[in-house]
Specification:
binds magnesium ion; single chain; binds adenosine-5'-diphosphate; 19 strands; alpha+beta; disordered N terminus; 11 helices; 4-stranded antiparallel sheet; 8-stranded antiparallel sheet
Length: 354
């Protein structure tokens, strides 16, 4: 543990926050192309941008189309994310998740939506050998990343004994969820991705086919910015926020990143971050950052968290077995391990950052 974490701190390595890299790639075009470019831009449909603060993070939408309709759609999409937050939040006593956590072992009837998400979380728990475990939340309050205090080992061990997603019972016929008393569910590793997918669904339902949904740097990208011009998703350097590590053209897919730099504190020269290895109750040690590209953001979000815990070998083996999924894991020892679809894009650039 000590050695691996010291390594993470010591390597000023790549990872990711992600954003639409915008038109920067056009910046160096030769002057003689300028007229052509202006003509094309004039014909290109307008991209409208909207922002909101939701789920404790900044959200942004970029929507191609009519300004008035885009504005109304953005409002509806943000309202949908706020609704999801009210259902899934572990912090709001009135949320469905809080009701489940407070039920003391009794079955709780939940919405079809929450039931489905819990089912998906359980499925990924199975596929990842327990690396993704929504009952990690037994440790909430033991690990307090805002207070920045390292908990006593016996407090971690006591809470860790109450982590096991297989003890979350889901009854599809009754649509109930049952959690043993003393256990808790926390959807921080999947709910944002679900919010992104819901926002995208709202935009699609209103007829938009070209847009980008950015939930705190996790993205879903639909269609193209302009005909023949894909959206470009920039992956930022984790330790040097203004540096772009890689720019990926993406269409009709989610790109989600998990890293040890999103929420962490340092104590005694070690970095303690918010992705927990359910087997130890301690911050996962094998990875610095993970990027996943998949068809939907819910799965990409949860999978990025799972792969982070699993580390490069087991994580990429799982990603390769999943159809339509690409992933890159930046390991604590500095290696980058990626599926074939991202191998060319990531390794060189991530290694350069050391
Ligand atoms: P971010 O929210 O920064 O994008 P992640 O998607 O990786 O990061 O989610 C991290 C969050 O997931 C933690 O803050 C916590 O709520 C939850 N979590 C932590 N460890 C696990 C785990 N092993 N399995 C499932 N959820 C986890
Ligand atoms: Mg996640």
């Amino acid at each position: 543990m000590a050695a691996a974490l010291a390594l993470i701190v010591g390597l000023a390595l790549a990872g990711c926050a992600r954003r639409d890299a915008g038109p920067a790639k056009d910046a160096g075009a030769p002057a003689r192309d300028a007229a052509v470019r202006v003509a094309r831009d004039a014909a290109a449909p307008a991209v409208h941008r909207f922002q909101a603060q939701l789920m404790g993070t900044p959200w942004a939408l970029a929507i191609v189309g009519d300004r008035g309709k885009a504005e109304a759609a953005a409002k509806a999409a943000f309202a949908e994310v706020a609704r999801v937050e009210a259902v899934m939040s572990e912090w709001r006593p009135s949320s469905e998740v809080s009701r489940l956590n407070a039920a003391g072992g009794a079955p709780v009837t939940v919405s079809a939506e929450l039931f489905d998400l819990l089912q998906r979380a359980r499925d990924l728990g199975d596929r990842s050998g327990g690396a993704f475990d929504v009952t990690w939340a037994a440790l909430r309050g033991v690990w307090d990343f805002d207070a920045g205090r390292v908990p006593a080992p016996d407090a971690v061990a006591a809470a860790q004994a109450r982590i096991d997603y297989r003890r979350l019972t889901l009854d599809p016929a009754a649509r109930t969820a049952t959690l043993p008393a003393g256990m808790a569910v926390g959807l921080g590793g999947i709910a944002k991705g679900y919010g992104i997918d819901r926002a995208a669904a709202v935009l699609r339902a209103r007829g938009f086919t070209a847009f980008l949904v950015d939930g705190g740097g996790d993205l879903y990208v639909a269609g193209e910015k302009a005909p023949g011009q894909p959206w470009t998703v920039g992956v930022q350097h984790p330790r040097r926020r203004d540096e772009l590590m890689v720019a990926l053209p993406v269409r009709d897919a989610a790109v989600v990143t998990s890293g040890d730099y999103e929420r962490y504190f340092e104590a005694g020269g070690r970095r303690y971050h918010h992705i927990i290895d359910p087997r130890t109750g301690m911050p996962a040690e094998r990875s610095v950052a993970v990027t996943v590209r998949a068809a939907d953001a819910t799965f990409a979000d949860a999978l990025a968290t799972a792969l982070f815990v699993m580390g490069p070998e087991a994580g990429i083996a799982l990603a390769e077995a999943l159809p339509g999924v690409d992933a890159a894991v930046l390991a604590a020892d500095g290696r980058v391990v990626a599926t074939p679809g991202l191998r060319a894009a990531f390794p060189a650039r991530w290694q350069e950052a050391r």
